[in-house]
Write a structure and sequence with these properties.
By secondary structure, this protein is α+β, with helices and mostly antiparallel strands. The chain folds into 2 domains: 145 residues, Beta-Lactamase (2-Layer Sandwich); 93 residues, no CATH class. Helix content is 47%, strand content 16%. The strands form 2 sheets. A 5-stranded antiparallel β-sheet has the order 2-1-5-4-3, sandwiched between helices. Helix 6 crosses helix 7 and helix 6 packs across helix 8.
Length: 249
């Protein structure tokens, strides 16, 4: 399992991934967009993007400055100023709260630091060709664990989980995969609670007296099940959703 720091980082990255509309990297000297990541499960409205782009054009920041703003449609935009690159991220409404803002900012700060370190030479000699940053996709996917927001299926790996919460989650995932074909991690919390209530009824117990741990504990257990191979993401959405799902797209 994860220690407390790893747990908090995993949870905050999951919150970021669920809220992402776009992550952009902007060449600081010219304010030119050199890389854009659009989350495959979300869409950013054109008007929202245009509003954020205008703010970027007018916004002057110093190195290490962070600016968080709310846009007209209540979505949120965060700017972080690196040494050569500005990071701009548009997130769904209420993704950033007063409590988690420092953690979210720190995660983007670390990513931009890693990006600038990796492309230090390219950024110093940048002549306007953004294709040199094409590997940023994989770098960002790995750093933010983007696949946590994808559809998943249950896989038997030859043994059963030892942790009781992981055991119930895995049973619910197996059951739902057989019935529907896939699930999202957010749905799996509800499905697991439903599964445990049904088990209680079968034993003649009152399901209304059950007490469940916080949702954060469910997520951490799911992250561990993913690490162990019990929960696996679907990569090619339409093609694989049609393969796994009982509902055809």
């Amino acid at each position: 399992m994860y220690d407390e720091e790893e747990k908090q980082e995993k949870l905050i990255k999951f919150r970021i991934v669920k809220g992402i509309l776009i992550i952009s990297l902007i060449y600081r000297e010219t304010k030119e967009f050199i890389y854009n990541f659009f989350h495959p499960m979300s869409r950013v409205p054109k008007e929202t993007l245009a509003e954020a782009e205008k703010i970027n054009k007018d916004l002057d920041l110093f190195f290490n400055d962070i600016k968080i703003m709310e846009l007209s449609d209540k979505s949120q935009v965060i700017f972080y100023e690196g040494s050569q690159v500005r990071l701009m991220t548009i997130l769904k409404p209420k993704t950033i709260t007063e409590e988690n803002a420092p953690l979210i900012a720190r995660i983007f700060e670390r990513f931009l630091f890693e990006f600038e370190a990796k492309y230090q030479k390219d950024l110093k000699e940048y002549q306007g060709d953004p294709s040199i940053f094409k590997d940023t996709d994989k770098m960002l996917y790995d750093y933010l664990n983007v696949d946590l927001s994808f559809p998943h299926v249950s896989k038997y790996t030859g043994f059963d989980p030892d942790d009781p919460l992981e055991k119930y989650i895995n049973e619910a995932a197996e059951e739902f995969t057989k019935r529907i074909g896939y699930f999202y991690l957010d749905n799996l919390i509800y499905l697991t609670k439903k599964h445990v209530r049904e088990l209680a009824i079968e034993k003649g117990e009152d399901p209304n007296k059950l007490e469940f741990p916080p949702d954060e504990d469910f997520y951490v257990a799911m992250f561990n099940l993913k690490r162990l191979g019990f929960l696996q993401k679907i990569d090619n959405f339409i093609e694989e959703l049609n393969l796994y799902s009982k509902i055809k797209y």
